[in-house]
Amino acid sequence: MKNKLNSALYLFLCALFFSSCVATSGIDNTSTISSSEGVLSKKSTYAWYQPTPSAQLTYGQGFDADLHKHLLQSVEEELQRKGYTKTTVNPDMLVAYDVSVSVPDAMDKPELYGPGFGYSYAYMSGYRYSYGNAELPGYRAVDLFKQGTLIVDVIDPKSKQLLWRGWTEGAVKNFDASYGKVRSLVQEIVKRLPTAVQP
């Protein structure tokens, strides 16, 4: 009986040890770049860069609109948690999202896209982004990120230049990911934004 108890205790401790290793072995692949220190320090309101798609939705095989809906909802909820208010009149900042994808040969034509953009999930969702990158250090075009990289951009509404970018490298493994999974990825990015200024 004592040997059985010792064996059971040993197995339990081993299982506990290995489960803690798995839980803590994740690598945080979330990064941000910003045009300057404190550039977002006086912001409290936002709007989407393109409130509605400007082109027809054309999802490739294995992609659909559910991810798009989850991303919009998650970004809005996480910005609200940081104290930002969505508005349609004179926003302090504009927000856009993207997810990098492998580019099919037929779509690998730079003339189809604005500078710094390429074939991506947002492109399939009908968005045609054309804001500048303000020569941010560490900036790279969307199509140069690893497939599945989720990107959240903050853009100046007047200059149409990128103020801040956050991304999680290769995070979207499944393009029909659940809302819960998408929200956890968005959380990792948005939590790096400064908290909104309260009026």
What does this entry look like structurally?
- With 199 residues, this protein is of the alpha/beta class.
- The chain has a single domain (28-190), classed as Double Stranded RNA Binding Domain (2-Layer Sandwich).
- It is built from four helices and six strands.
- The protein has helices spanning 2-24, 65-81, 121-124, 179-190; strands spanning 30-34, 45-48, 85-86, 93-99, 150-155, 162-168.
- Strands 1-6-5-4-2-3 form a six-stranded mixed sheet.
- Helix 2 links the parallel strand 2 (45-48) and strand 3.
- Helix 2 (65-81) crosses helix 4.
- The relative contact order is 0.21.
- Residues 1-23 form the signal peptide.
- Keywords: Signal.
- This is DUF4136 domain-containing protein.
- Residues 40-194 form the DUF4136 domain.
- It holds the Pfam family DUF4136.
- The number of distinct structural domains comes to 1
Let me know the average pLDDT.
85
- Give the number of DSSP strands: 6
Work out the helix count. Answer: 4
- Could you estimate the helical fraction of the residues in percent? 25-40%
In N-to-C order, the SSE pattern is HEEHEEHEEH
From the alpha carbons, calculate the radius of gyration and give it in angstroms. Answer: 20 Å
The CATH class is: Alpha Beta
CATH topology: Double Stranded RNA Binding Domain
- State the end-to-end distance: 68 Å
* Strand residues, percent: 15-25%
**Assigned CATH architecture:** 2-Layer Sandwich
Uncertain runs: 11-27
| Sheet with the most strands: spatial strand order | 1-6-5-4-2-3
The general outline is globular
> What class would the helix/strand composition place it in?
alpha/beta
Biggest sheet architecture: 6 strands, mixed
Signal peptide: 1-23
Domain DUF4136: 40-194
Protein name: DUF4136 domain-containing protein
Keywords: Signal
